[in-house]
Amino acid sequence: MDKIEYRAVIKYLLLKGNTPTKIKHELDSVYGNSAPSFTTVKFWAAEFKRGRKSLGDDERSQRPKTATTDDNIAKVHQMVLDDRRIKVREIAEVMNISKERVCYILNQDLGMRKLSAPWVPRLLTCSNEHFQRYVGAV
């Protein structure tokens, strides 16, 4: 059962005058193990008592879904080509993205890893597509 449907049942039973404990007992008897927890029932009962009308979740302010865009990948790539000894922290500060996202771009998107100090392609073989990009740059 969808969580919005549970919330509708909680609201209905609350409007009938039931307490959160009685609502939880009723939900358990009907839905068994799939019923929401008592904490959830108590939270939604309090929300509805305060006058909440909506059954859905409130909007949340979030970060952008991802910082891994083609533009960011190209900028990170150019920064590494300009200075092979650049630190992940420096890239993150310049790009204004997290260090974890910079590491993801370097490792997954560009196929690089840290060897000693400079960033290099993971496999130095002619068949590696990433190596083809660096042949002219090295």
Automatic annotation (TrEMBL):
<dbReference type="InterPro" id="IPR041426">
    <property type="entry name" value="Mos1_HTH"/>
</dbReference>
<dbReference type="Pfam" id="PF17906">
    <property type="entry name" value="HTH_48"/>
</dbReference>
<feature type="domain" description="Mos1 transposase HTH">
    <location>
        <begin position="3"/>
        <end position="51"/>
    </location>
</feature>
<protein>
    <submittedName>
        <fullName>Protein GVQW3-like</fullName>
    </submittedName>
</protein>
<dbReference type="InterPro" id="IPR052709">
    <property type="entry name" value="Transposase-MT_Hybrid"/>
</dbReference>
